[in-house]
Each structure stands twice: as C-alpha cells, then as structure tokens.
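Listing S7. Sequence submitted for prediction.
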Amino acid sequence: MLITRAMPCLLLKDGALVKTVKFKDPAYIGDPINAIRIYNRKEVDELIFLDITATQEKRKPPFKVLSEIASECFMPVAYGGGIRDLADIKTVFTLGIEKVALNSYAVENPRFVREAADRFGSQSIVVSIDVKKTRAGRHEVYTNGGRTATGLDPVAFAAEMERSGAGELLLTSIDRDGTQEGYDIPLIKSVTGAVGVPVIACGGAGTVEDFGAAVSEGGASACAAGSMVVYYGRNRAVLINFPTRQDLDRVFGTQGART
C-alpha cells in the first residue's frame, strides 16, 4: 500500500537551522543535530535539508555538516543546495544521504537532471520547484533562493522535469512559505494533474488538516512543513515538534497507514 508521507523541510545557513518567511529574513532555530534527534524519536517519515545560501554564494554543499546529519538520522534524508555536478551528487550519496534536490541548476541546465537520473537512478533525484505569483496572478518558477524570475510556467516545467528523469518533485509556494496559512492548493493541483511522479507539497502548512487538504484536494503524494514543525504558538517560540502518527493517519486515511 502506498504510504502518504509527511516530513520536516529544514533550512540550513552557515551550518545552523534557520526559518524564513516568503524566503526572506532567516531566523535562527538551532543546531540541526539536536533537531534530528527529536525527529528520530518522533519517527518522522523523511527529512529534507536545503542549504539556502549555497547557490547564491556559489559554493559546494556543506559535506561535513551532511556527514554529521546522515550519521544521526534514522530516516531517509534528501539534500538540496549548491549541487552542480555529478561528482558532488556522488559525494553526497557516499556520506549516507539518500536523495538530492536540484533547483536552480535544473533550470539552467535541464540535461543535468537526465544525466543525474541515468547515473544514480530516478528514485534518488528530486527536482525542487519554487513558485511565486506574479502581479497578474500567474504562477512563475523562481530560482536562486526566490531571487530570480525565470518566466517558466511551473506546470510545463514540472512535466519537463518528469521527462528528464526526476523521480519526485518538491513544489514550494514562496508566497506561502513560513506563513502557516495553508498550502496553495490550486498550484499543487495544477502540477499533480500534469505529472505522474510523486509531488511533495511545501510552503504554508499550519495544521495537520492542511496536510490532508494537500493530499485530498491537491493530489500531493507527500507533505513537507517548516514553521509548523519548528515553532509553537502565535509568538513563534522555537519548539521542534511533529504531528503524531495518529493525527497523520486521521487526515491521510488508509493511505497514511504504515504497512
């Protein structure tokens, strides 16, 4: 039976955990290893780590940090940020990370997605698609940490990435990031209706019911959350947390049940 997954999406900056709002103003959360130990106890399905400054600073992934992360995690881990060649992907996998997420470089060089999928297998290649609404209300793909407009339609780009060999898509609404106002369901639905690979909904989760809506209304195969799983309350006090398996099963139904 297919399991509907739920996972924290954690942001790295200079080796520390941070959280943004609409991809801006990263606030310090804490040490990633401490967070991992809590998520291990809570038995989350997967973890996603994204280095939010690697591409902007034109540097390679933080291999030392990733080695420490992989050695602590009991669950599969995906990493994105600064990956621009096959050698870097190989190094990341050698450290114990199971998946890589390609974002800006997938737009710059779509053939790289095919090369990576052919070399390492589609199941290990995620394409991360960051999307913002234009003033006209049209969804557009952005790169470079939400700084660069590409003019690309996310639905068409998602379909191209599937054809290029991506085994999974991480779809993030920049406008909803950190707001905890719920996912952009129309965006999710438009992409899931155009591709056959799993889509991870990201950006806007505030309650476990938002997870359910992303799956039942948007057609997502998985849900990722940031603020919801590192903050507590209106004052956004730092508290590493995650919904219980019972709550997830309630909103996901039988699809969320472990087998």
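Caption to Listing S7: primary sequence and predicted structure tokens for the chain studied. The CA atoms of residues 17 and 32 lie 6 Å apart. The chain has one domain: 5-252.
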